[in-house]
Amino acid sequence: MADRLEALLNHFAVRARMFHSGALCGINDLPATGDVGQLHLVRSGPISVTHAGEPTVHVTDPSLLLYPRPLAHRFVSDPKRGADMACANLQFDGGPANPIASALPRFVCLPLEKIEGAESVLSLLFDEAFNQRCGRHALVDRLFEVVLIQVLRYLMEAGTIRSGMLAGMGHSKLRNALIAMHEQPAKEWSLEALAEAAGMSRSVFADTFRDVVGCTPGAYLQSWRVSLAQQALRQGRPLKMIAIDVGYGSEAALSRAFKSQSGLAPREWKQAQERAAAS
């Protein structure tokens, strides 16, 4: 089976940086900051999690709390014993437009025991996070990234996400069409060719794709190509070369698709990104 995550992570990496390890006691507010997500690992609790206007989530077992996009939240634990936690900020390449971050729910709460194959990684992560050894931060940061990949695997394979790109990646047939688009964005994909990649008839493929992913295959392909173009613009690559690499025959064709997707022409979008970074 082709690797469902390889093309996504090759183009849109995620970096983790631990900012807390140890007991978290009493009331702790974590604001939404910039385009930074967060990943919290609860080694022992209990701890309660609140989001504005929503019911409180009570965590009693060792668990993972994932925020792929900024979302203010509050932790409440025993003021003396607290809850043992390791916490990291997540920086997804492309920020909120990152296709992985945008495909995930705003909040994921998952018992650690459900993440298949993660026991040894989590054991090492907690051991390093809760001890003072040289290279500790660099090692724990990488381990947080490994855990995130394991969570993405779980969410795809368990079928817990019902719509969007990750739901399509978890579908036994649609995944093959999505992988094909991710790996070969410049190819002139017809509906028939994508249906063939999925091993489905043209009509069944089109209907199933729309029902599961939430858009037509053509709209998804355009979105993926524009996401790649945005990433390349951030890296300073010339627009003419980007157009060829993502499957548009000219700058004009890319600009039309780009503006249709983002509301701005490529150069306008890049200038807006530069202004936002400078502010």
What fold name goes in the CATH topology slot of the largest domain? Jelly Rolls
The average pLDDT is 92
The assigned CATH architecture of the largest domain is: Sandwich
Q: How many domains make up the coordinates?
A: 2
Strand share of the residues?
15-25%
Write the layout of secondary structure elements.
Blueprint: H1 6-11, E1 14-24, E2 27-30, E3 37-44, E4 47-50, E5 57-59, E6 63-67, E7 73-76, E8 83-92, H2 99-103, E9 108-111, H3 119-129, H4 136-158, H5 165-170, H6 174-183, H7 191-198, H8 202-213, H9 217-234, H10 239-245, H11 251-262, H12 266-278
Helix pairs in contact: 3-4, 6-7, 7-8, 9-11, 9-12
Provide a descriptive summary of the structure in words.
By secondary structure, the chain is an alpha+beta fold. It folds into 2 domains: 6-158, Jelly Rolls, CATH 2.60.120; 167-278, Arc Repressor Mutant, subunit A (Orthogonal Bundle), CATH 1.10.10.60. It is built from 12 helices and 9 strands. It has helices at residues 6-11, 99-103, 119-129, 136-158, 165-170, 174-183, 191-198, 202-213, 217-234, 239-245, 251-262, 266-278; strands at 14-24, 27-30, 37-44, 47-50, 57-59, 63-67, 73-76, 83-92, 108-111. The strands form 2 sheets. The protein has a 5-stranded antiparallel β-sheet with strand order 1-8-3-6-9, covered by helices on one side. It has a 4-stranded antiparallel β-sheet with strand order 2-7-4-5, with no helix packed on it. Helix 9 crosses helix 11. The mean pLDDT is 92.
